[in-house]
From TrEMBL, chain A:
Coiled coil: none annotated. Signal peptide: none annotated. Pfam families: PBP_dimer (PF03717), Transpeptidase (PF00905). GO terms for molecular function: penicillin binding; peptidoglycan L,D-transpeptidase activity; serine-type D-Ala-D-Ala carboxypeptidase activity; transferase activity. One of its GO terms (cellular component) is plasma membrane. It is a single-pass membrane protein. One of its GO terms (biological process) is regulation of cell shape. Its main location: membrane. This is Peptidoglycan glycosyltransferase.
From TrEMBL, chain B:
The gene is mrdB. Its EC number is 2.4.99.28. It comes from the Bacteria. GO terms for biological process: cell division; cell wall organization; peptidoglycan biosynthetic process; regulation of cell shape. It comes from Amphiplicatus metriothermophilus. Pfam families: FTSW_RODA_SPOVE (PF01098). This is Peptidoglycan glycosyltransferase MrdB. One of its GO terms (cellular component) is cell division site. Keywords: Cell inner membrane, Cell membrane, Cell shape, Cell wall biogenesis/degradation, Glycosyltransferase, Membrane, Peptidoglycan synthesis, Transferase, Transmembrane, Transmembrane helix. The lineage of its organism: Bacteria, Pseudomonadati, Pseudomonadota, Alphaproteobacteria, Parvularculales. Belongs to the SEDS family. MrdB/RodA subfamily. It catalyses: [GlcNAc-(1->4)-Mur2Ac(oyl-L-Ala-gamma-D-Glu-L-Lys-D-Ala-D-Ala)](n)-di-trans,octa-cis-undecaprenyl diphosphate + beta-D-GlcNAc-(1->4)-Mur2Ac(oyl-L-Ala-gamma-D-Glu-L-Lys-D-Ala-D-Ala)-di-trans,octa-cis-undecaprenyl diphosphate = [GlcNAc-(1->4)-Mur2Ac(oyl-L-Ala-gamma-D-Glu-L-Lys-D-Ala-D-Ala)](n+1)-di-trans,octa-cis-undecaprenyl diphosphate + di-trans,octa-cis-undecaprenyl diphosphate + H(+). InterPro entries: FtsW/RodA (IPR001182), RodA/MrdB (IPR011923). GO terms for molecular function: lipid-linked peptidoglycan transporter activity; peptidoglycan glycosyltransferase activity.
Length: 639, 382
């Protein structure tokens, strides 16, 4: 069928409608053109900005953390290369096979493998995923050697914190750890938050690392990078880069060699040792055993390891020289001897010791059951006679003792920059009133309590650092202040000339003579701990502080030897000393927890530490100054 | 090849070639050239993987156009219904023998080649409807009885394509069909009722969940592009950034940061206009739009100068399809229309669309070649 209708009307309609259609298209294109005008001409600036935002990213360059060095420039905390192995999923088709290949060199647990696979699925395929870090050089070189057969594997060298002295300096420098949510919320600026978010960035968690975190951090650098839509870097705009600035160097007073020697000496015990320069107050040794390895904390330790550290009776997480508080025991008699003189007792005052003294309603025993006989002040220190001090305590005001103890450095913390220092207790009438605020019946001071305090028992407690400061102040008669930071960046803390103590220096003479007798006269409680060097005489004082009172019933059962007691009930052993006797330069305090006796446990250790100090004599050597090192190249340019 | 299609031809091949509208061919080549240039830039200055193929495809399609132009219009009228029913059959067969690609079933594989029946249908529907209205008087067009066949002819392929699912092509086919019915002289009253009906159907489709989730998303995103800037609105936002940052004279050839840094999605296909606009700016983009405008206006002119009603309607149908492509695509990349997956004709990368468009112009050209000697003797040219 062939239809061919000749109908002029429909052609008219078609022409009209085609005209309308043409008009509609024209209108449509005008609208499109108008929109184009709006986007490209009117809103041009806004879209240019958005295109720039798309295109350029600011990339932070993490600064190197400042070093912490000892007094001679040996690094206690520095940075080391962190050998890592990364994996770029897009570089291989066979992800499983690639992981199999790398597992032959480094151990990848099932758990870890699952985690890696999950990351691969989640992230863009060109973003490297960390498979393992802190590889040994051996593993790292093996990976590099086999690289042609390891598709997608990318060896990488980053920087991480390193503590070359490991646990030996753990309590001095502290450690760094991963950034937490609370660090982020406490960040003061967006700049800081960005830095904190850098992968692998660490902040100081403990010790000086924590206190001086801001100074050690340094200033982040930055570089603009051109990225594509997937965040892949197309170009690094090096000419606009701001280089990062390494954090400040922290130069300490610590002598790393002596620190190591002290740590070795204390090994196996739960103990603390402090060595101070009595002239400058420089802390040369701040040893605490057992310790933890700050490197392990940096890498991250397992919950099991953490629990083990936390629950050990040896308290490896406790910074014992600063945060361990112990009754000073007989070392406190040095304070008491000065207080006695202030109270009017002359060095020649003598008391008779029959081994015990009746006061109030009970006997106070001397450590020596059979008694010391007649004892003067020098002898009271040399033999550490308790009854001599009980005799004085019967009518001395406890506030006099408290005043002397405070002046000698007990019952307070010092500005060291290491957090967690404890104050200890110097009991006085005022202290007791405050301490027993809730129980008024216990508030008044009972004279019987003075008898305990005067021999360093009862309420009185102290830290090893305080004992070292006390010894330094007795040795010099001046208000020696301990310090551990010598130089921070370009600010040096000059050793301040020690002020007078506010105690008649003459009162210290008999105390020093007594201490000399303790170690250097036969019959002294620490005669075994003498240093046989006439030019470098060691003057000391033993201390044994009671942890547990053997009951009468136990005594009746025949339990008299403290070695029969379980470890945690044994007495603490203490020893304080200074040397040389006639020109004091170094003071030392040693506390061995549950070491039974100062003379047998603490004295010998203190002597060995002081022997090392004597051999090295750090005060006689010029200390390292990072500012001089930093200035050297500048000077040579001028010259 | 041209030598074999001469049955019943009144004119010799040489004469017919001389009657081809060469300025239109040149315009089409310029548009396709813009495509090659842009695709070369999109591949970061490389003929691979798009530019060279695009050029070859255009060359092949141009040959097809010329061959089709050599076939007399009356032969196309004879072929109109068979082509339509073949296309409809192929479309209906897609769900059974089609190849699933990117979540939609649109392709049929024939002897190693894949082709999209929905693309063929764009042309086939134009032919079929033109053929249908060729036999109707003006007063018959709006009679309900005569309205049923065109509604079925349009409705069947639209429904089939919509189910593939390919909303963009379904809308395009439906709109083209409606436009031809309108051009054929449908009364305004019925036309308006039809538009309202289509709108109601669309709302119902949305309400009763006939649209796929991503289609709903796209429409919602069109209504509020900032709704989800990194999700569905991302394409549009990046596209606007590209155009906007191009400014008056563009960032320069191969210097478009948005495209070179891959911020533009699907930039070699649906969003290619934004690369062009980014690199050549407002001046370049308007220039390209003017090229399209010229093609459309020449096309309408040719249509109105054709000898038969069939030729006029078919030619206009081709131009309607072409115009819809241009308007929907450019509107879509600038946020004037929803992102429905309509390419920019002759510029976007894609073989089937190129072939369809050029075949359409082949038909148009055939109408021009078959025109009366005195084509422009006052017969309703614009």
């Amino acid at each position: 069928m062939r239809i061919n209708v000749h109908d002029p009307e429909r052609q008219e309609i078609l022409n009209r409608r085609a005209f309308l259609f043409g008009g509609a298209v024209s209108l449509g294109l005008v609208v499109v053109g108008g929109r184009l005008y709006q986007l490209q001409i009117l809103d041009h600036d806004r879209y240019v900005e958005l295109a720039q935002d798309n295109q350029f990213n600011r990339r932070i360059i993490t600064p190197l953390r400042g070093e912490i060095v000892d007094r001679f420039g040996k690094p206690l905390a520095s940075n080391r290369k962190n050998f890592r192995v990364l994996f770029v999923p897009e570089q291989t088709r066979d992800v499983e096979g690639a992981l199999d290949a790398i597992s032959e060199i480094i151990n990848i647990s099932e758990e870890k493998r699952t985690r890696i696979m999950r990351q691969i699925r989640r992230r863009a395929p060109f973003i490297p995923i960390e498979i393992e870090n802190n590889l040994s050089w051996d593993q790292f070189s093996k990976i590099n050697f086999q690289l042609p057969y390891l598709p997608g594997i990318l060896p990488d060298v980053g920087e991480t914190r390193d503590y070359p002295y490991g646990e030996a300096a753990a309590f001095v420098v502290g450690y760094v750890g991963a950034v937490t949510e609370s660090d982020l919320s406490q960040a003061k600026s967006e700049e800081e938050r960005i830095l904190l978010r850098q992968p692998g960035f660490k902040v100081g968690r403990e010790g000086l690392e924590r206190t001086y975190d801001k100074e050690l951090r340094g200033a982040a650098g930055s570089m603009n990078v051109k990225v594509n839509a997937y965040g892949r870097v197309i170009e690094e705009l090096k000419d606009q880069a701001i280089p990062p600035v390494q954090g400040e160097t922290l130069a300490l007073t610590i002598d790393a060699d002596l620190q190591l020697a002290a740590m070795k000496e204390l090994e196996g015990e739960s103990a603390a040792a402090v060595v101070m320069d009595v002239v400058t107050g420089d802390i040369l040794v701040l040893a605490s055993t057992p310790a933890f390895d700050p490197n392990a904390f940096n890498i991250g330790i397992s919950p099991q390891e953490w629990r083990a550290l936390n629950e050990s009776p040896y308290k490896p997480l406790l910074n014992k020289p600063l945060s361990g508080v112990y009754p000073p025991g007989s070392t406190f008699k040095l304070v008491s001897a000065v207080a006695a003189q202030i109270a009017g007792y002359k060095p020649g005052f003598r008391a008779h010791c029959p081994g015990r003294l009746w006061y109030g309603n009970r006997y106070f025993h001397c450590w020596k059951r059979e008694g010391h006989g007649w004892v003067d002040m020098k002898g009271s220190i040399k033999h550490s006679c308790d009854v001599f001090y009980y005799t004085i305590a019967k009518d001395i005001d406890v506030d006099i003792i408290a005043d002397v103890a405070k002046k000698l450095g007990l019952g307070q913390t010092f500005e060291l920059g290491i957090p967690g220092q404890r104050e200890g207790v110097v009991p006085s009438r005022e202290w007791k009133r405050r301490f027993f605020a809730g129980r008024p019946e216990n508030q008044p001071w009972f004279q019987g309590e003075t008898l305990s305090v005067i021999i360093g028992q009862g309420y009185v407690t102290s830290t090893p650092l305080q004992l070292a400061v006390m010894t330094a102040r007795i040795a010099t008669g001046r208000e020696v202040r301990p310090r551990i930071v010598r130089v921070l960046g370009d600010i040096a803390a000059p050793p301040q000339p020690a002020a007078p103590l506010g105690i008649d220096p003459a009162y210290f003479d008999i105390v020093r003579v007594g201490m000399d007798a303790v170690t250097n006269e036969p019959g002294g409680t620490a005669y075994r701990s003498r240093l046989d060097n006439p030019d470098w005489r060691l003057a000391g004082k033993t201390g044994t502080s009671q942890v547990y009172q053997i009951t009468a019933e136990e005594r009746a059962r025949g339990l008299t030897d403290p070695e029969d007691l379980p470890w945690e009930r044994r007495d603490h052993a203490l020893f304080v000393c200074y040397a040389p006797f006639d020109n004091p330069r170094y003071a030392c305090a040693v506390v061995v927890e549950h070491g039974i006796g100062g003379a047998r446990m603490a004295g010998p250790k203190a002597r060995e530490i002081m022997r090392a100090v004597m051999t090295k004599d750090p005060a006689a050597r010029p200390a390292y100054d990072p500012r001089v090192v930093a200035q050297t190249p500048e000077r040579s340019r001028e010259g | 090849m041209a030598t074999i299609i001469l049955p019943g031809g009144k004119r010799g091949l040489r004469e017919r070639l001389s009657r081809v509208h060469w300025p239109l061919i040149i315009l089409l080549t310029m548009v396709a050239g813009a495509g090659v240039v842009t695709l070369y830039s999109a591949a970061e200055g490389s003929w691979q993987p798009w530019a060279l193929k695009h050029l070859i495809r255009f060359a092949v399609s141009l040959c097809l156009l010329l061959v089709m132009a050599m076939v007399a219009m009356r032969h196309w009228m004879t072929l109109a219904y068979p082509v339509y029913f073949f296309a409809l059959a192929a479309l209906a067969a897609v769900p059974f023998i089609g190849v699933v690609n990117m979540g939609a079933q649109r392709w049929i594989e024939v002897g190693g080649f894949q082709f999209q029946p929905s693309e063929l249908m764009k042309l086939a529907l134009v032919l079929g409807l033109a053929r249908y209205y060729h036999g109707l008087r003006a007063e018959q067009v709006s009679q309900p009885l005569y309205l049923v066949p065109p509604l079925v002819m349009i409705g069947a392929p639209v429904a089939l394509v919509f189910m593939q699912p390919d909303l963009g092509t379904a809308i395009l086919i439906g709109a083209t069909g409606a436009a031809i019915v309108f051009l054929a002289g449908l009364s305004w009253r019925i036309g308006i009722i039809g538009v309202i009906g289509a709108f109601v159907a669309g709302v119902a489709a949305y309400r009763f969940g006939i649209l796929k989730q991503y289609q709903v998303e796209r429409i919602l995103t069109f209504l509020d592009p900032d709704r989800d800037p990194l999700g569905k609105g991302y394409h549009l936002l990046q596209s606007k950034i590209a155009l906007g940052s191009g400014g008056l004279d563009g960032k320069g050839y191969m210097l478009g940061t948005q495209s070179q840094l891959k911020f533009l999605p699907e930039m070699q296909t649906d969003f290619i206009f934004t690369i062009f606009g980014e690199e050549f700016g407002f001046v370049g983009a308007i220039g390209l739009l003017l090229l399209y405008y010229a093609v459309i206006m020449i096309g309408i002119n040719i249509a109105l100068g054709a000898k038969t009603h069939f030729a006029r309607l078919a030619s206009l149908g081709v131009i309607v399809t072409f115009s819809l492509y241009v308007l929907i695509n450019t509107g879509m990349v600038m946020g004037l229309a929803p992102v429905v997956g309509v390419p920019l004709p002759l510029v976007s990368y894609g073989g089937t669309v190129m072939l369809t468009i050029m075949a359409g112009f082949g038909l148009l050209m055939s109408a021009y070649v078959s025109r009366e000697q005195d084509a422009f003797s006052g017969r309703g040219s614009l």
